[in-house]
Amino acid sequence: TRPTRPKPNVNRPAGREFVNKAFEVDKATIQKIKNNQKPNEPKDTINVQDFDDLIPHIGGFGRYQKILFLLMIPYAYFLVFVYFTQIFITLVPEEHWCAVPELAHLSVEERVKLAIPIKNNVHSKCSVYDVDFNEQIALNDTEDKSKWKEKPCSNGWEYSRAELPYSTITTDLNWVCDNDTLPTIAQSVFFIGAICGGLLLGWIADRYGRVPSLMVANTIGAVAGIATAFTNDFWSFTACRFFVGFAFDNCFTIMYILGEKVLNRILKCEPLIDLFAVLEYVGPKYRTFIANMSIAVFFGSAACAIPWIAYYVSDWKLLSIYTSAPLLLALFTPFVVPESARWLVSKNKIDRALIIIKKFERINGKTIKPEIYQAFVDSCARSQSESDSVNYSIIDLFKKPRLRKITCLLILFYMAISLVFDGYVRNIESIGLSTFIAFTVASATELPASVILTLTLDRWGRRWLGLGTMFLCGVCSVIASFLPTGTITIVLIVTGRFFVNFSYNIGMQYCAEILPTVVRAQGVAFIHIMGYVASILSPVVVYLSTIHESLPLWILGFVGIFGGSLALFLPETLGKDLPQTLDDGETFGVDQNFFDFPCIDRQRKSLDEVQSQPSTSKK
């Protein structure tokens, strides 16, 4: 008889044997079956190398995954509220003029005609005639104004309610004329907050889990958003936007950082970006569909709704509260969303991971053999030991010449996409429609862009689609900048937004596929952060319309064309074995030609295979 082995401790340090106590009996049963097998009897091979190998056994897209997919809806709305509300609380009507208290008894049209100078065929926004209007009216001398002096506005401004039916913080605090840069600065600070929030919440996600990090992100966003409604000066408003930026992206996606020290976390930059916890539990073949459809349907519908929520509320303070308070619902996340099984495994909390997997098994109506569970546990122990033995950082991407070039191209490519996308989101006034209608029409392009992307990405590849969509977006912008406002301009700008939506969805997937597995998480996160850096500039680009109304479209157009052209110098990933090591990343794509096109190459390969088959005589 074999001596009884001591029960292994599930809390042993990484690298030692890790056996879950709940499966000790199952392990004995497995050993008994093995002992009873004949020497020459083939044994079934159980291949469970990682969590993805376990997903087919619990169901790639079963009932529980569908429930989680629907639970993404409120978080998609949270992202829209955090991102887009700032646009509608800082709007300023195109028509505004100096307030003249002594002419308050006149109608708006009479006041503007009498007191406001005309420059370039439009009434001035920042100057007023420096005369005694009551005296001029008494003398009936109001026609010849050529000798009247002008002065800057000194009594505030009046704003047209025909364009914007409610007041904003911009109109309440008169952030126009000499102060018109203040909303731009505040919105740029928002993205600085997003960078800081990604790093802080990443540390929380690594130490305490993704669900706690998600709760903290939404809570910070809710508190700062509600506090925004009570701000009454630039500095307090900007501080609130900084902390609302903490929740941006992190309220829907989870950015977490591995590492023990702050310096190491910044140098290694190891966030992984997951579309909440849902993609992790979905089979690989469903992930492209789920990722794109969640953005198209949930994010797109929320983006179409936000302008009309603002229009209906018609108060910037109430809008801030109404769009921030719902984020507190994220406090109920632990009751409806499971923790990341991968994070639990990385922290040697296999027991909790198995509890979650068993829940999937039960709700999806599946039955998993004990051998599969045991193989998964053993694989987790091996992986933990291997991951502890080798450490890579973002710096490794810049040590090899070709990999360094690819990484730099990816960074510039994604920065261009981020800048153009956010620029299009903010430059809605250039469409020439009502702000509310224009924003809705532009946001509605999310759905067709994501649907077409889902149908074409695995057919035409990433490289040419990245080039084509960014290039066409840039061309639409440049052409629209030279045309007067009208139907053609509207069509061009909306089409440009459609193409940049397309490009944005390509960007992250392309980056994740090109970078080697050993540094993929760190690299993707670093590129994502660089996208935030580019987004800091987008409010500035839109502000340049005060210099020339077409200048933002020129810049967005040329950045789009430049960014798209960078994709041509990147290797194609469709149908290729993705690089695993740094050496693989250095040599990845060296055998590809500049004009390779996946769809044509696939057809040519199929034709060659048919022609190479030996002909058979007919019977």
Describe this structure in words.
With 619 residues, the protein is mostly helical. The protein folds into 3 domains: 13-30 and 47-93 and 166-288 and 314-388, Growth Hormone, Chain: A (Up-down Bundle); 96-159, no CATH class; 392-591, Growth Hormone, Chain: A. It is 61% helix and 4% strand. It contains 25 helices and 8 strands. It has helices spanning 24-36, 51-58, 63-88, 108-115, 133-138, 169-172, 182-208, 210-228, 234-247, 262-268, 284-313, 316-324, 333-336, 341-346, 350-363, 370-389, 401-426, 435-443, 446-460, 462-481, 487-514, 517-543, 551-566, 582-587, 598-612; strands at residues 96-98, 118-119, 122-123, 127-129, 150-152, 157-159, 254-256, 272-274. The protein has a two-stranded antiparallel sheet. The chain has a two-stranded antiparallel sheet with strand order 2-3. The protein has a two-stranded antiparallel ribbon with strand order 4-5. Helix 7 runs antiparallel to helix 8 (210-228) and helix 20 (462-481) packs antiparallel against helix 23. It is elongated, with a radius of gyration of 30 Å. The model is unreliable at 4-44, 254-276 and 615-619 (pLDDT under 50).
